[in-house]
């Protein structure tokens, strides 16, 4: 029977952009192929029935990389920890193909760990199995927490020994395929600015708007509307990370998707206890991308993106778009935090004092960040006037108990004004019981 992956009608949206945007590469050959993860939840989006796709189909397409289409290592630069780096690009991955989903949207299938490319520099082009599994977990957890994210389609262990400074080595190798709306990054535009190619910025911007911002009205100021929409998407994404207790770890501009999705999970972490200074990447010595700095880091990235965009659009449009970041961020953060507390907040600002007190509580009481929300969901009985007894599970000082009581009173005053069924629904939707993150001591 024909392999479903090889039979998909791939579209060449990137190849149509022209050869300035990629290098055609080949995949590495691996000594072994053991399918470790297949994400059947994604198959219906691509019009496939999971039962009709065998494990061997996955291995043939995404382990041996059989398939007729060219594989494209995408070109990009980026600001890494504040410094411009023109030596980037897909160094261990390529765009396997682009497919139209059942929802009409175009999806990228991109690899990670598929071998060396012209951008590998001195590195091996490989992905460790641990790194691959960590990305699978991050993406699935974030998706479940309501964050707009890439997902992993497959992870195949490939039988090589890898040496890494941050894992006990030798460590096992793997190759992953990631599905997301677009692998085009802020850094894809930044490279064109570096090269002084306003013509290519124009071409790429038209492509991005037509393909990923098709809802914007034609004619008029489409460029300005695009940037304003991107600012909103990124502000909302950042707010959703913050509400999810997620620290991405490496918010360089080559890790910022032009579609405003979250992707590329390396040294990320979910918070154990709430701590704005928590830093996920061991090599982030200054804490540039610590948990609490994520909104500022994303704002800065959007600001840097203005340099290439200014080559083809007006500075005032860009400034006006970026001015809205804080308003979008606060609205999204308050709405999502309210939802995690089981509250609908048409006027999200009304809920602000409760959110602030919740954060204070989470900072001072020894409970895991996501664990706390899972406790709320589990403890909710769907009636008005009920109480929560979280502190019986915890070893609290008198001071902590007083804070708990203060929080509890304020929380109940909000809950009692809400529809209990809707509260139960929200608590379930946004507070998964399976929590990633280091356990609290
Ligand atoms: P990341 O930190 O994963 O976002 O990667 C930053 C840059 O380094 C990108 O250009 C990657 O393609 C490249 N890179 C990371 N790890 C490797 C590796 N093992 N081999 C080749 N290139 C890599
Ligand atoms: Mg990256």
What would your notes on this structure say?
- The protein contains 14 helices and 12 strands.
- The protein is globular.
- The strands form 4 sheets. Strands 2, 6, 7, 8, 9 and 10 form a 6-stranded antiparallel sheet that branches. It has a two-stranded antiparallel ribbon with strand order 1-3.
- It has 441 residues and is an alpha+beta fold.
- The chain has 3 domains: 180 residues, no CATH class; 146 residues, no CATH class; 90 residues, no CATH class.
- The termini are far apart.
- The site of magnesium ion has 3 residues, from loops.
Number of domains: 3
Helix content: 25-40%
The helix/strand series, from N terminus to C terminus, equals HHEEHEEEEEEHEEHHHEEHHHHHHH
Helix/strand-derived category reads alpha+beta
User: For the report, how would you describe the main beta sheet?
Assistant: 6 strands, antiparallel
- Mean pLDDT reading: 95
Number of strands: 12
> What small-molecule ligands were found?
adenosine monophosphate, magnesium ion
Output the number of helix runs.
Answer: 14
What separation lies between the terminal Cα atoms?
Answer: 53 Å
Rounded radius of gyration (Å):
23 Å
Beta content comes to 5-15%
Shape: globular
Low-pLDDT regions? none
What are the SSEs and their pairings?
Elements: H1 4-7, H2 13-17, E1 22-25, E2 34-38, H3 55-62, E3 71-74, E4 78-80, E5 83-85, E6 95-100, E7 106-112, E8 127-128, H4 129-144, E9 151-162, E10 171-180, H5 186-194, H6 198-212, H7 222-244, E11 246-247, E12 269-270, H8 294-309, H9 315-323, H10 325-340, H11 352-364, H12 369-379, H13 398-415, H14 420-430
Antiparallel strand pairs: 1-3, 2-9, 4-5, 6-7, 7-10, 8-10, 9-10, 11-12
The chain binds adenosine monophosphate and magnesium ion.
Adenosine monophosphate binds at residues 88-92, 119-120, 123-126, 250, 255, 264, 266.
């Amino acid at each position: 029977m024909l392999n479903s992956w090889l039979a998909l009608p791939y579209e060449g949206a990137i190849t149509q952009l022209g050869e300035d945007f990629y290098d055609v590469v080949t995949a590495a050959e691996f000594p072994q192929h053991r399918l470790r993860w297949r994400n059947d939840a994604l198959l219906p989006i691509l019009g496939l029935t999971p039962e009709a796709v065998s494990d061997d189909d996955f291995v043939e397409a995404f382990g041996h990389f059989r398939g007729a289409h060219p594989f494209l290592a995408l070109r990009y630069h980026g600001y890494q920890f504040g410094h411009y780096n023109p030596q980037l690009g897909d160094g261990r991955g390529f765009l396997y193909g682009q497919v139209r989903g059942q929802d009409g949207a175009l999806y990228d299938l991109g690899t990670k760990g598929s071998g060396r490319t012209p951008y590998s520099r001195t590195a091996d082009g490989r992905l460790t199995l641990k790194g691959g599994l960590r990305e699978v977990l991050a993406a699935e957890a974030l998706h479940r927490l309501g964050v707009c994210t890439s997902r992993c389609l497959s992870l195949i262990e490939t039988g090589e020994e890898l040496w890494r400074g941050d894992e006990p080595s030798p460590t096992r190798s793997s190759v992953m395929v990631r599905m997301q709306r677009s692998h085009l990054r802020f850094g894809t535009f930044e490279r064109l600015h570096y090269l002084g190619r306003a013509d290519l910025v124009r071409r790429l911007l038209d492509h991005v708007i037509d393909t990923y911002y098709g809802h914007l009205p034609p004619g008029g100021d489409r460029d300005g509307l695009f940037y304003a929409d991107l600012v909103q998407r990124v502000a909302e994404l950042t707010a959703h990370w913050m509400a999810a207790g997620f620290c991405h770890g490496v918010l360089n501009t080559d890790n910022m998707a032009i579609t405003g999705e979250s992707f590329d999970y390396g040294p990320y972490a979910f918070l154990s206890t709430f701590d704005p200074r928590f830093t996920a990447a061991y090599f982030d010595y200054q804490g540039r991308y610590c948990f609490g700095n994520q909104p500022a880091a994303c704002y800065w990235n959007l600001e840097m993106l203005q340099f290439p965009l200014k080559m083809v659009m007006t500075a005032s449009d860009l400034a006006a778009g970026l001015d809205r970041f804080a308003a979008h961020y606060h609205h999204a953060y308050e709405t999502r935090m309210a939802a995690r507390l089981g509250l609908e907040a048409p006027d999200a600002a009304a809920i602000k004092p409760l959110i602030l007190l919740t954060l204070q509580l989470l900072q001072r009481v020894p409970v895991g960040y996501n664990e706390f929300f899972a406790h709320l969901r589990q403890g909710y009985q769907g009636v008005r006037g009920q109480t929560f007894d979280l502190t019986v599970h915890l070893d609290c000082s008198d001071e902590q108990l007083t804070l708990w009581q203060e929080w509890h009173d304020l929380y109940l005053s909000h809950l009692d004004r809400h529809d209990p069924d809707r509260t139960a629904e929200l608590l379930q939707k946004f507070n998964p019981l399976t929590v990633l993150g280091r356990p609290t001591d």
